[in-house]
Design a protein that fits this description.
Blueprint (H helix, E strand, L loop, with lengths): L1 E3 L6 E3 L10 E5 L6 E5 L6 E4 L2 E4 L17 E5 L3 H13 L3 E4 L3 H10 L4 E5 L11 H6 L4 H4 L3 E6 L7 H6 L4 E4 L6 H25 L4
């Protein structure tokens, strides 16, 4: 069976005997160390990837059937239907496909299995602070190459919008008060541009110094 590491995009070929049907197997990418939780079920599908027939791995409760490589996706973890409706409008206006999840365990597995460019996390989420949120704990352990491709927003009625010190302390790019949701698309759009400009200049400087 062939799978692709979401940490570094390395393609891995796993012997079928290492993936017994119906049993959870933890795999680790030999290149970047990314850990993947995989369950192979009875049903499989043959899919064409770059001209090569591969077998898709089915993850119980984790698969996103409509997921298509090449599109930009947002993982949104909030517990209010009203908030979901507001965020749906703002996120789609930025040309992201929002995926809402209210189960932290499943959200974590989806984050490991799929690439999300934008993450929106409610602070706190059902009494769990961002510091203790398993999704955020996982993100903070990613290598910087993978992490810098994500743009993360923390939203709450107790945060001061665009406060850089609070954002830094929470390891996110943007903090947003729920009252300022009408500014979401503008703030995120500007923030992503600024982040891209920063890393472009950083990489150019590192190249000049022959550090990379």
């Amino acid at each position: 069976m062939k799978i692709q590491c979401r940490g570094c995009n390395t393609r891995l070929e796993i012997p079928d005997e290492r993936l017994p049907l119906g049993k959870k197997v933890i795999l680790q990418c030999p290149k970047c160390g990314e850990r993947m939780s995989v369950i192979r079920e009875d049903k499989t599908a043959q899919v064409e990837v770059h001209g090569e027939t591969q077998q898709r791995v089915y993850l119980k409760g984790v698969e996103i059937p409509e997921y298509e490589e090449g599109n930009r996706y947002a993982l949104v973890i909030v517990d209010s239907e009203e908030l979901k409706g507001q965020l749906m409008k703002e996120i789609t206006s930025l040309a992201y496909r929002p995926h809402f999840e209210d189960n932290l365990e499943i959200a974590l597995e989806k984050l490991k299995a799929y690439k999300f460019d934008l993450l929106v996390l409610q602070e706190p989420f059902r009494g769990i602070s961002l510091i203790s949120n398993p999704v955020m704990e996982y993100i903070n352990q990613l290598n910087m190459i993978v992490r810098r491709e994500m743009y993360i927003i923390a939203i709450s009625d107790g945060l001061k919008t665009s406060d850089p010190m609070i954002a830094y302390s929470m390891s996110v790019e943007l903090v947003l008060n729920i009252k300022d949701l009408d500014r979401f698309s503008k703030l995120v759009s500007d923030g992503i541009k600024n982040k891209q400009s920063f890393y472009r200049a950083f990489l150019e400087t590192m190249k000049e110094l022959k550090k990379i």
